[in-house]
Amino acid sequence: MGANTSQVSDLSDNPNLRALVGTESISENDPFWNQLISFTFISPTCSGDSKLLEEIVIPLAKLLIENNPRTGNFCALVRIFLGRTKELKISTECQDQLFIWQAHNTLFMIRCLIKVFIREMSEEELRLQFSYQERAPETGSEDLLEELLSNLVHLIVEVPLLDITYSILFEAVTTLLIVFSYQLFHKDILRDGIMYQHMMKGKCLCLTSRLVKTLLYNFIRQEKCPPPAAHIFEPKAEGGLLYGLASGVASGLWSVFTLGGAGIKAGIDQEPNPLPLSNQSLLLLLVLANLTDGPGWPNAYRQAITCFRNTQDTSALLMEQPHTFQINFNSLYTALCEQQRSDQATLLLYTLLHQNPNMRTYILSRTDMDNLVLPILEILYHVEERNSHHVYMALIILLILTEDDAFNRSIHEVVLKNVTWYTERSLTEISLGSLLILVVIRTIQFNMTRTRVQSEIHQSVNSFFGPNNNVLHHLFALLSKKHNKVLEQATQSLRGRQGDNTALPDYAQDLNVIEEVICMMLEIINSCLCNSLHHNPNLVYALLYKRELFEQFRMHPSFQDIMQNLDTVIGFFSQRLEQAGSDLSVERVQEVIMKGAQALPKDRLKVNPVTHTH
To answer: Which residues of the chain have pLDDT under 50?
Structure first.
């Protein structure tokens, strides 16, 4: 680009870029390369400028695709970068900002070009672009693409994160993300692609645990973009080129996991991302963790994520685990608590709870679970601002947590005061368990009106009421107990204060809240029974097993209409179980329920028999 390039609009006519993509081969020893990578680029400050940059890069990259087989200039550019990566660590120790700046610029150009290459050609054609070289006879049969990937991984794990290295580390992480973006252009899962094999079986394999650990620590550290003074090549880092150009790739890759859509609804203004390296590192970690196993070899990155241990864990391993390492669980837990507003942090939490038993045990042993649960509940409370996949992940996280009896006991012992984000009514004092029940039921009820996610929500309800989860019992037992306790307190208070004019506690409001929660829960169950009975065998099983919990609600005037369908279902399946015989196993009971769900006439269930409004 050259030292004089300062605006996006200058790029298409820049003589150095024209020479790079042109028809003349340029020797790696030519002073041209030093001039090309010594540019100061004014960062785009809006998405429009970032889009303009991509539009200008595309025709330049297409010219390079056409001419590179004869010139080998792209390979020369890659070799210029590889030559500098060997000295990056020393340059960092010596605070050689000029050297790091030029290395960053080189990688930035490679990344912009590769993004277009991937869009325009197959993996095999991309590999060929890395093989065209007019002058490099001493290199033999070296695979330049694998060398680039290997050097990027080495850069990420070996170069320390400082103000002067922040940008090049960000570029390295983002370039790897772009390399894996081939999946975006294929409907089928890529299991044996060139990039995949290089990362899974090539030179990168030995660095698996170090890469996963470094990406986790990047997420944990939550380092912001350094101030402009630290970037002699980045006059405007925050919200500019560093994040803006990568955001399209990052959000695109994230859509692979969320099946489309971002964490916040379109149209809602967002602040410029102050944590680009942290967020990109987390995205790359999730991409690596979700790569499929290859034909004959497992995903080493997933193995590393599922078996890492706490730094304070000094116990010996029962068996040798590949790619294991140790990391500070307290720091990771803190970062997870602080970052749950983002989809990717929620997905990481789900991944760790689901796949890493060490981390799951640690999280469930914490005495400050409110720090983790409250952000998740806030996500669910603001359900209208989140996409259905983020909401569903949050619900599944709560499902995993509530499978633990100790967790279910402990959350009802944590008393919260003044939950400010809950605005429907003033919650001056409420237990964490009660808040969880209130928010989860409210969330599920809200989503019942959204047909696109009804099946997901109905299935999550079925999971919450599964044989290994006691949520139904805990919910109704607790609600019944609280309802009776408030009634008793109100009665005793009235008897004991005859003639006393002091204000009484607002027991009527407390009763109204409890009855509203009970009603919402019954409405959700009723919706599942009417709309997807065959998808909810666990729910039917729980209704039969804990039928006594509903006795006191049956005669309550607020719940009589809702209870009609529950009584119909309980009566119908009870009769079929009696006909099936006595001493039935759990498996046999579930079989009877599954067959009965297909046989129950739909007209026997009243759709929306509820007159209750909120």
So the answer is: 3-6, 45, 136-137, 139-140, 229-271, 451-454, 458, 468-469, 503, 609-614
- Which of 313, 344, 370 lies at the terminal end of a domain, its last residue? 313
* Backbone torsions φ then ψ of 389, nearest 5 degrees: -70, -35
Give yes or no: residues 434 and 303 share one domain. no
Computed on alpha carbons and rounded to an integer, the radius of gyration of the chain in Å comes to 30
Q: Which amino acid is at 169?
A: L
- Going through 385-494 in order, the beta strands assigned E by DSSP cover 415-416, 430-431
Query: Could you tell me if 416 and 473 lie in one domain?
Result: no
Q: How far apart are the C-alpha atoms of 162 and 141, rounded to whole Å?
A: 36
* Amino acid, single-letter form, for residue 69: P
Tokens of 583: 């001493």
Let me know: does 264 contact 386? Beta carbons within 8 Å. yes
Residue 46 is predicted with a pLDDT of: 57
Nearest Cα neighbor of 445 from 532, 381, 512 is 381
Instruction: Give the DSSP per-residue string, 80-124.
Output: HHHHHHTTHHHHHHTT-HHHHHHHHHHHHHHHHHHHHHHHHS-HH
pLDDT of residue 469: 46
Residues 460 and 452: beta-carbon distance below 8 Å: no
The pLDDT value recorded for residue 70 is 92
442 and 513 in a single domain? The answer is no
Tell me if 322 sits within 8 A of 303, measured CB to CB.
yes
- Rounded CA gap, 461 and 483, in Å? 23
Binning the chain into helix, strand and coil, the percentages to the nearest 5 are: 65, 0, 30
pLDDT for 81:
94
Strand bridging mode 326-327 / 415-416: unpaired
Instruction: Name the token pair of 548.
Output: 């006594």
Tell whether 194 and 335 lie within a shared domain.
no
CA distances from 193 to 3, 122, 254 (A): 38, 10, 20
562: alpha, beta or left, given left = phi > 0 and alpha = psi -120 to 50? alpha
- What's the pTM? 0.74
Shared-domain flag, residues 195 and 107: yes
Contact of 38 with 105, CB cutoff 8 Å? yes
Please, are residues 251 and 264 in contact by the beta-carbon 8 Å criterion? no
Cα distance between the two ends of the chain: 62
Residue 123 has a pLDDT of 86
For residue 254, the 8-state DSSP code is: H
Buried b (16+ CB within 10 A) or exposed e, 420-429: eebeeeebee
Residue-range definition of the domain harbouring residue 423: 328-454
pLDDT of residue 271: 45
Based on the domain organization, do 295 and 351 belong to the same domain?
Answer: no
Q: Which residue has the tokens 């009776």?
A: 484
Looking at the 3D structure of the chain, how many domains does it have? Answer: 3
Same domain, 64 and 111: yes
